């Protein structure tokens, strides 16, 4: 049994994804517009890629059988093969064809000798090939990239630059992608002020809605920005209802900590089936998750750094799952020496913000300033999370730690 008052990051991530199925619905679009979208169906290669066996280098197409392991051989040059302009004949015994990169390998030839390795003979019509060539060298085989009839890309794959190129290499100009996930988000709290007006006493500007905007935009979801909602039962109820009618996901920040004298928890619990968690994570203890109407609800903590940490460490997996990504990509961690001392809370997985830097050619990490859960400046100066596992001890300068670079997750 899991304890909602002491949930590890891994458990929270698992529980969050447990009942999620990708949104239904898909659309067909030109491949350029499909960047960052999730493939809806497998893409089957309609032909071999490359379609023809061709040369990987500029040089001479030859027959391996004519070459010698220990002596130079003389071959007669009988023609040229250029990319897009093949040699139509056959390479016979002791013959060679001048060939350029990408040109179809002529009939009879099976090997390419790079031009730098070859001497032109005085007769002008033949070449001298030194010993030591490998049969089949410098040749790209038909189908070595993608085999005809096999899936070139699987449904559930997110389309990045290399996938767009791969689809294009199959001559396919349009793809079916899953419809975009619709995410409604708002900030909660009486002290939270929207931009473009002066701050009243005790107020803070709403920064969470901007970090959330940035994180969601990079994920490629459809945004429904619902602004700041007062800590007022009616306003919260209508915001939650409204969001649940329009969106697949409701993402809120603030108001979910235990024992708080506000209405966010109360309304979430009343309007839907919502669980409140205390996570073994730092920063970012409280979190809510569940369902309101047909929408999934993820209630993030209020503190600005906690918002980002819980989003990237827990919620992003669930959003990717809903977007149709399968299987979920695992984020790599790297071990580097830490040059800062870090106090570690027992039993919590901590994500201090760090700066990766090089010293004498080695990557190291140091703390990026004040680690308070509301301190966005250290988040902004950082380029990685330092990942301290639940069982980890205090870190002393010189210890090795694991880091998760922002580049790649943000
Ligand atoms: P809460 O969980 O609602 O008690 O919020 C925790 C802390 O985060 C408080 O100091 C809030 O003022 C702050 N906070 C909550 N929402 C936001 C927001 N949208 N922008 C900036 N700070 C916030
Ligand atoms: Mg609040």
Please explain how this structure is put together:
This protein is α/β, with parallel strands linked by helices and 410 residues long. The protein folds into four domains: 9-24 and 179-322, MoaB/Mog-like domain (Molybdenum Cofactor Biosythetic Enzyme, Chain A), CATH 3.40.980; 30-49 and 151-178, Alpha-Beta Complex (Molybdopterin biosynthesis moea protein, domain 2), CATH 3.90.105; 54-140, Molybdopterin biosynthesis moea protein, domain 3 (Molybdopterin biosynthesis moeA protein, domain 3), CATH 2.170.190.11; 334-405, Beta-clip (Beta Barrel). It is 19% helix and 30% strand. The strands form eight sheets. The protein has a six-stranded mixed beta sheet with strand order 7-4-6-5-9-8, with no helix packed on it. A hairpin with a 2-residue loop joins β24 (353-359) and β25. α1 (9-18) packs parallel to α6. It is elongated. Adenosine monophosphate is lined by residues 187, 189, 191-192, 204, 206-209, 253-255, 257, 260, 301-304, 374.
Q: Tell me the Rg in angstroms.
A: 30 Å
Work out the helix count: 7
Q: Report the average pLDDT across residues.
A: 95
Q: What fold name goes in the CATH topology slot of the largest domain?
A: Molybdenum Cofactor Biosythetic Enzyme, Chain A
Number of spatially distinct domains? 4
User: Count the strands?
Assistant: 27
CATH architecture of the largest domain: 3-Layer(aba) Sandwich
**Helix proportion of residues, in percent?**
10-25%
Structural class comes to alpha/beta
Oligomerization status of the protein chains: single chain
Distance between the termini: 33 Å
**So what's the overall shape?**
elongated
| Bound ligands | adenosine monophosphate, magnesium ion
Strand % is 25-35%
User: In CATH, what is the homologous superfamily of the largest domain?
Assistant: MoaB/Mog-like domain
Largest sheet, in brief, is: 6 strands, mixed
The low-pLDDT segments are none
Biggest β-sheet: strands ordered side by side in the sheet: 7-4-6-5-9-8
Q: What's the level 1 CATH class of the largest domain? A: Alpha Beta
């Amino acid at each position: 049994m899991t304890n909602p008052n002491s949930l590890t990051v891994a458990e929270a991530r698992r529980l969050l994804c447990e009942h999620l199925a990708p949104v239904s619905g898909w659309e067909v679009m030109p491949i350029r517009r499909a960047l960052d979208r999730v493939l809806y169906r497998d893409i089957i290669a309609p032909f071999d890629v490359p379609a023809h066996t061709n040369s990987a280098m500029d040089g001479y197409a030859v027959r391996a059988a004519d070459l010698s392991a220990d002596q130079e051989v003389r071959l007669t040059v009988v023609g040229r093969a250029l990319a897009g302009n093949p040699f139509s004949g056959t390479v016979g015994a002791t013959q060679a064809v001048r060939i350029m990169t990408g040109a179809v390998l002529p009939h009879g030839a099976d090997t390419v000798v790079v031009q730098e390795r070859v001497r032109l003979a005085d007769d002008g019509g033949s070449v001298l090939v030194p010993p030591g060539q490998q049969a089949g060298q410098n040749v790209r085989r038909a189908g070595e990239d993608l085999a005809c009839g096999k899936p070139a890309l699987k449904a559930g794959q997110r389309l990045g630059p290399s996938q767009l190129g791969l689809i294009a290499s199959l001559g396919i100009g349009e793809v079916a992608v899953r419809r975009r996930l619709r995410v409604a988000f708002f900030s909660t709290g009486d002290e939270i002020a929207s931009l473009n007006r002066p701050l009243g006493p005790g107020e803070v500007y709403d920064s969470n809605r901007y970090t959330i905007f940035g994180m969601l935009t990079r994920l490629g979801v459809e945004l429904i920005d619902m602004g700041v909602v007062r800590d007022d039962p009616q306003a919260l109820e209508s915001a939650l209802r409204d969001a649940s009618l329009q969106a697949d996901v409701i993402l809120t920040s603030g108001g979910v900590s235990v024992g708080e004298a506000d209405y966010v928890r109360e309304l979430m619990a009343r309007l839907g089936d919502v669980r409140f968690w205390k996570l073994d994570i730092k920063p970012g203890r409280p979190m809510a998750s569940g369902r309101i109407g047909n929408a999934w609800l993820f209630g993030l903590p209020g503190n600005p750094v906690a918002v980002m940490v819980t989003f990237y460490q827990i919620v992003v997996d669930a959003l990717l799952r809903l977007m149709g990504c399968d299987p979920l990509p695992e984020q790599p961690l790297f071990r580097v020496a830490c040059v800062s001392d870090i106090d570690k809370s027992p039993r919590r997985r901590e994500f201090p913000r760090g700066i990766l830097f090089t010293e004498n050619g080695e990557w190291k990490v140091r703390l990026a300033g004040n680690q308070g859960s509301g301190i966005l400046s250290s988040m902004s100066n950082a380029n990685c999370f330092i990942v301290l596992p639940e069982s980890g001890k205090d870190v002393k300068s010189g210890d090795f730690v694991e880091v998760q670079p922002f580049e790649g997750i943000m």
